[in-house]
Design a protein that fits this description.
Blueprint lengths: L4 E4 L2 H10 L2 E7 L4 E7 L9 E2 L2 H13 L18 E7 L12 E6 L2 H9 L4 E2 L9 E3 L1 E3 L3 E5 L9 E6 L5 E6 L9 E2 L18 H5 L2 E3 L1
Parallel strand pairs: 1-8
Antiparallel strand pairs: 1-4, 2-3, 2-7, 3-6, 5-6, 9-14, 10-11, 11-12, 12-13
Length: 216
């Protein structure tokens, strides 16, 4: 894989990437124990401050399948295969309503022990591991104080959510809107709400960061 640029980003973006811990899991197929999410989204810095163009992401995704390494999936960068393997792989199209356009999306079938970590929220997303060539560049990003979005659907309902940052870009947490029965969820980290009434919700504010104004 080739990482074409090295981003020196504001604390807003660093807090966002660290809080999300990789691009989040966005869809679960409980019957098949398959999780879906972006492996890499274009133009958005990862936890090392690296980012890639859509063309580079496509080359990386195609090369991954060409090499036939679809079972090289570990947990928390342990370098030990977890028994998980890729069953779907595609580049999100411009009209995609679930995944960030231009991102590499995979569906991964996981064994029982990994599935339990996914359901509990301990495993929240995919994180790319590999070698690359870095080229330094600098950009500034203007972030709003509040970022808003919508959680995934659990027990036949969703919530709107709001998360907040301080003036230095530190993630302060947030909360969801009220559901019909009056409950809501606090947010202490950037991928899963607190558990209330026996359930929690996954969410992402990556899309809000991607929509912020960037200055090269």
């Amino acid at each position: 894989m080739k990482l074409d640029k090295r981003a020196s980003v504001s604390n807003f973006v660093r807090q966002a990437t660290e809080a999300r811990g990789g691009v989040r899991i966005k869809k679960l197929d409980a019957e098949e124990q398959v999780v879906f999410g972006e492996v890499y989204a274009p133009g958005f810095p990862d936890s090392q401050g690296d980012f890639m163009t859509p063309d580079e992401i496509k080359k990386m995704a195609y090369n991954f399948l060409r090499k036939g390494i679809t079972s090289n999936i570990d947990v928390n960068h342990s370098q030990t295969p977890s028994g998980s393997y890729v069953v779907e792989s595609f580049i999100a199209r411009p009209e995609d309503t679930m995944f960030i356009p231009g991102s590499w999306v995979v569906g991964v079938k996981v064994p029982d022990n990994v599935w339990s970590l996914v359901k509990s929220g301990e495993l929240n997303g995919f994180s790319l591991d590999g070698w690359g060539i870095r080229t330094d560049t600098v950009f500034e990003i203007e972030m709003p104080e509040l970022l808003k979005g919508e959680t995934d659907e659990v027990q036949d309902h969703r919530h709107e959510f709001t998360v907040k940052f301080d003036d230095d870009g530190n993630f302060l947490g947030g909360r969801t809107s009220y559901a019909r029965d009056g409950h809501f969820h606090k947010i202490d980290r950037g991928t899963v709400t607190e558990t209330v009434n026996g359930h929690n919700h996954r969410f992402s504010f990556v899309e809000g960061v991607l929509g912020a104004e960037i200055h090269g």
